[in-house]
Amino acid sequence: MLPMRKLKIIIMQLKRICRRDFLFALIFVCGTSAVTAEITEARQAELLNLLRQDCGSCHGMTLKGGLGPALTPDALATKSGEMLVQTIIGGRPGTPMPPWAPFLSQEEAWWLVNILKEGTGVVAQP
Is the domain of 46 the same as that of 86? Predict the structure, then answer.
């Protein structure tokens, strides 16, 4: 664990970076284990099933697009994680995209965004 003084210096230096890069750098410095540590393996399996079945019903079963846009790593490469999490949690008013806040926490939404951007384990196995 870093001493508080050193941590404050690092945070001050990171604040000089633009907000988006600051958040990315902070996640990188702290690691993503804090997010995944709170999500049990059983819940991760539920989230993958939700992604494949519920999201797949609109975004295509291979997530390459359908009623909703594609959710492939290439399609999401230019989208910020914050925007994707807000879309998942709050939905998109005026579109068929519902808010998932009643079913997902912010941490779970971030976990899904990371899975989608990495493209790991998303598409159902035949």
Answer: yes
Are 85 and 113 contacting, i.e. CB atoms less than 8 angstroms apart? yes
For tokens 């059983």, the residue is 42
Cα–Cα dist 67/63, whole Å: 11
pLDDT in tens, 11-46: 666 565 544 454 444 444 444 444 445 899 999 999
pTM above 0.70, yes or no: no
CA dihedral over 52, 57, 59, 62, signed as positive or negative: positive
Residues 116 and 73: beta-carbon distance below 8 Å: yes
Q: How many CB atoms lie within 10 A of CB 115?
A: 17
The CATH number of residue 70's host domain is 1.10.760.10
Q: Which residue is it, tokens 């976990």?
A: 111
